[in-house]
């Protein structure tokens, strides 16, 4: 199985939760990633492409492989706070 995900990396839980609420309120995920993400993937709207298990840090991977396509949430890793959206799944 492979998952495709996008994320926005920020420095605080409060900022991540605020972005999540803005996304739930129908703001564009990719535009927010371009504006707010501290990760180089922000330039691509946060898109990380497809990946298999054991390619990402544990907390990030657990979210991605336990949620359905289109689901979005907040996860903390050693890199910071991520707003993650599962964008596709290949069986």
How would you describe this protein?
- The structure is a single chain.
- By secondary structure, the protein is an alpha+beta fold.
- The protein has one domain (2-90): Roll (Chitinase A, domain 3), CATH 3.10.50.
- The chain is 32% helix and 34% strand.
- It contains three helices and four strands.
- It has helices spanning 13-24, 29-36, 58-66; strands at residues 2-10, 47-51, 72-77, 80-90.
- Strands 2-1-4-3 form a four-stranded antiparallel beta sheet, sandwiched between helices.
Main β-sheet, spatial strand arrangement? 2-1-4-3
CATH architecture verdict: Roll
How many independent structural domains?
A: 1
The first-level CATH class name: Alpha Beta
Computed Rg = 12 Å
- At CATH level 3, the topology is Chitinase A, domain 3
Helix % is 25-40%
Rounded to the nearest angstrom, the distance between the terminal CA atoms is 5 Å
What is the strand content? 25-35%
The overall pLDDT, averaged over residues, is 97
The overall strand count is 4
- One letter per element, helices H and strands E, the order comes to EHHEHEE
Question: How would you characterize the largest beta sheet?
Answer: 4 strands, antiparallel
The helix/strand class is alpha+beta
Number of helices, counting only DSSP H or I runs of 4 residues or more: 3
Unreliable stretches (pLDDT < 50, length at least 5) are none
- Envelope shape: globular
């Amino acid at each position: 199985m492979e998952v495709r995900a996008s994320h926005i990396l920020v420095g605080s839980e409060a900022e991540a939760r605020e972005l999540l609420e803005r996304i739930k309120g129908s703001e564009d995920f990719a535009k927010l990633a371009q504006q707010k993400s501290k990760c180089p993937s922000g330039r691509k709207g946060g898109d990380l492409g497809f990946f298999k298990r054991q390619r990402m840090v544990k907390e990030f991977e657990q979210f991605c492989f336990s949620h359905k396509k289109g689901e979005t949430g907040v996860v903390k890793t050693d890199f910071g706070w991520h707003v993650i959206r599962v964008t596709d799944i290949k069986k």
